[in-house]
Each structure stands twice: as C-alpha cells, then as structure tokens.
Write a structure and sequence with these properties.
elongated, 254 residues, Porin, 1 helix, mainly beta
Length: 254
C-alpha cells in the first residue's frame, strides 16, 4: 500500500468514527416558551354607551295652597332617562388558578348625555316641572371573578364601589311663582356597581372585552331657591341617579 492510499484510509476511518460518535450524542431540546397565563398586571382604555336614569319627586311643607307647592301635591315627578357616551381608562391585576381567574380593577370615565323629563301643567305632584339629571364622571373600584370557557376566553362577574359627580336640576316650567326658582345640586356621590363581561385574549399581550354595568349612586335632595319666602314654604326635589353602561374595552398585559 502506498503512503497516499494509507493516509486516505486513515482519514476515512476517522470520519466514520466521528459520525458514529455524533450519532450517540444527545440532541439538545429547543427551549419552549412558558405557557400563557392570565396572572399579572394590565391596563387599557374603554369606549361605550350610557343610559342615564333618574327618579325624581317633590317633598314640600307649608300652609300656602298654590297648586304644585301645596304639601298635598307631594309625590313622584316621574322617571327621567336619556342616552350618551362614555370613555376612559382602567388598570388591574389578575390571579389565575386552573380555570378560575380572580382580579381587581379600577377605572375612571367621563360621560355625556343626561336624563330628562317634563310634566305638563296640571294639579298634582311635579306639575309643570322640567327635570334634568346626569353623571358627569365616574370612578369604579371592583373585584372580578371569572371562568375560562377556553384558555383564551374569560366569562366574569364584577362588582364594587362607584364614585361619581352628579348634576341635577328641577325647574318650574310655565309657572310664575314669586320667590321660587330652581332646585339645583352638583355633588360627588358614592354607591355601587355590578355587572358582567366576556374578555378574549388575542395574543400574549393584548385582550379585548365586552362589559355591561349597572351603577347606582344613591339619592339626594336639593331645596328650591326662595324657600325663605314669607309663606313659610319649604320645598325640596329628591333625586336618584343611576346608569346602565355598555363598554368595549382593550387591555394590554404586562
């Protein structure tokens, strides 16, 4: 055997040995990303529609018999309603355990629109009165609990504290009673919020949700201006502010 053939044989043997050794080496697994989870912080924005609801009544006392201001005419003015829009932002935190997701969420929103009602002139409670009620802004602090009907789709219920700025006006319409004008109030009220929704995870970072809420900010009353008249009449208008809200929400997980 020539030197060249001998060298070629050795090289071939080494190549075969190297391939055999490589075949015996364990294959290194490609690292897999951790499974997606709902646990963690998130923040986002929302837009939607709001239906303002108000229940107003007159409460009066005194000895003057002047139609709607007569204490015998006390009672409900009626229910007012009106539609508007709502928009704002929210942030929160979720904990996932199996198919159950618990969470806390806070939101702040601005609202448009108002609830209105008018009673035409007639004897009886609220005769000739125009009512306007609205919630200007709303903050909620809520708990959430939900069930994962699919790893990426959550059905949930929510509820908690609601805080909002309300404005209410009751004005005699078509009546000219000296010393009496309007009942006006603008204040911050607290109440409760309950609702439900469905949230879908588009990918690891983004989620979209549809949510319905009922907000009740309780009741309050405002005196008619001019109650210091010589007739000694004291008249208040009693308001109850509530709203039904439908939201489209977009959240980003962190």
């Amino acid at each position: 055997m020539t030197y060249a053939k001998f060298s070629l044989a050795i090289a071939a043997s080494l190549a075969v040995l190297s391939v055999a050794q490589a075949a015996d080496l364990p294959v290194k697994a490609v690292p897999m990303p951790p499974p997606a989870t709902w646990t963690g912080f998130y923040a986002g924005g929302h837009l939607g529609a709001v239906w303002h609801l108000s229940d107003a009544s007159i409460i009066g006392s005194g000895e003057n018999d002047e139609g709607p201001w007569d204490p015998s005419a006390n009672g409900s003015i009626g229910k007012a309603h009106g539609a508007g829009f709502i928009g704002g932002g929210q942030f929160g935190y979720n904990w996932q355990k199996g198919d159950t997701v618990w969470g806390l969420e806070a939101s702040i929103s601005g609202l448009t629109g108002k609830a209105t009602a008018r009673n035409d002139f007639a004897n009886g409670a609220g005769a000739g009165n125009t009512i306007e009620s609205k919630i200007d802004w709303l903050a909620t602090f809520r708990g959430r609990v939900g069930w994962l009907m699919h790893p990426d789709t959550l059905l949930y219920a929510t509820g908690g504290l609601a805080v909002g700025g309300v404005k209410n006006v009751a004005a005699p319409s078509g009546l000219a009673i000296p010393g009496f004008d309007r009942a006006v109030e603008s204040r911050t009220k607290t109440g409760y919020v309950v609702g439900a929704g469905m949230e879908h995870r588009l990918n690891r970072d983004w989620r979209v949700a549809l949510e319905g809420l009922y907000v009740d900010l309780g009741s309050s009353s405002a005196p008619r201006s001019g109650n210091a008249s010589g007739d000694g009449i004291v008249v208040h208008t009693h308001f109850k502010n509530a709203a039904v809200i439908g939201l489209l929400k977009i959240n980003r997980a962190f």
